[in-house]
Amino acid sequence: MNKTYSTKPTDIKRKWFVVDAQGKTLGRLATRVASVLIGKHKPEFAPHMDVGDFVIVVNADKIHVTGRKLDQKMYYRHSGYPGGLTEITLRDQLVRYPTRAVELAVRGMLPKNRLGRKMLRKLKVYASPEHPHGPQKPEWLEF
Questions:
Q1: Which domains are present in the chain?
Q2: In the chain, N or C terminus with fewer CB closer than 10 Å?
Q3: Nearest one of 74, 125, 77, 118 to 103, comparing CA atoms
Q4: Which runs of consecutive H residues, i.e. helices, occur in the chain?
Q5: How do residues 84-119 score in pLDDT, each as one tens digit?
């Protein structure tokens, strides 16, 4: 009789990957990064566990979007007070907070629970090509 394999926390081996976002389309980059954070690329994937890897995204300020999204895509946040809704376009977002557009795109593709929040902590986004994660010996993730 065959036994069903169940991933244990001791079986999880995490790797570090670097993705260069320069010239990449925002949504396509975000889906690939979210898939690696969730761990779908691994044979020991389990939907109820965080088996994914760490992802470092560099050059986040040089992402590409199609169409007129730079001026038409809006990001909203609310302070919690009446009249506290703030909106900002993608173009302004990339000027003021260059990493936030990638973070929000990936965040929208992760599970909406505490497991998704745990996965999001493994995402590191930087606007420039330099990052402080050299000692982790990250590998380049090509797609």
A1: 15-66+97-140 (3.90.1180.10)
A2: N
A3: 125
A4: 26-38, 69-72, 90-96, 100-107, 114-120
A5: 999 999 999 999 999 999 999 999 999 999 999 999
